[in-house]
Amino acid sequence: MSHVRVAVAKSTSSVTEKLTRLLLRPTNELTKSRLVRLLFYHFYDADRLRVQHNEYTDKIMKKRVHIAAGIILSADQQEVFLTRREAKAYQGGFWEFAGGKVEQGESAEQAVVRELEEEVGIQVTALMPFYALEHDYPDKALKFDFFLVTEFDGHPFGKEGQEHTWARVEALRDFEFPQANHVVIEALLQRKG
């Protein structure tokens, strides 16, 4: 486990030293996040306390967003339905598997069914979990659940006006996807064999 490295000069107050010891003690993420903020905003003095950022401080300062995505397969499972993110959206211009944010009180499976109806106009009738991962971009921390959608009612289309296409599974490397999707594409290619 990474730790926040804190260099404390001998003249640092006992309150700051206690907070530093608490910060280095294993505890939940919310408590660590509050302690880091307290150290940054209330006790920061360049001459006495220096906090060095590392990947752990960056992670606890960002909220992890849970995303559910559907890999919509054609009836023969040779093609996948893709949509292109709007240029002005986060990771704009990249191709993606349709889906979206998991809302509070909703399972990832419920979210992907809802999102696919909202975004591409299909009613999912059969799906199964395929791949789960966490990915950190410099400005966002994401958790993904990808599902294989093998049966559905309707014909998928860009319901929100987004560009869309059916792509052969073996051609997925020819499309530009967000970095978090690369391992999923490799898993799909291995699945196809």
Protein architecture, described:
With 193 residues, this protein is an alpha+beta fold. The chain is 29% helix and 32% strand. It is built from five helices and nine strands, in the order E-H-H-E-H-E-E-E-E-H-E-E-E-H. Strands 3, 4, 5, 6, 7, 8 and 9 form a seven-stranded mixed sheet that branches. A two-stranded antiparallel ribbon has the order 1-2. A hairpin with a 4-residue loop joins strand 7 and strand 8. Helix 1 packs antiparallel against helix 2. It starts with a strand and ends with a helix. The N terminus is likely disordered.
Termini separation = 36 Å
Low-pLDDT windows of residues: 1-12, 42-53
Helix/strand/pairing class, anyone?
Answer: alpha+beta
Radius of gyration (Å): 22 Å
The best one-word shape is globular
- Count the E strands: 9
Mean pLDDT: 80
Enumerate how many helices there are, as a single number: 5
Q: How much helical structure, as a percent, in the residues? A: 25-40%
String of helices and strands:
EHHEHEEEEHEEEH
Estimated share of beta-strand residues: 25-35%
Major sheet:
7 strands, mixed
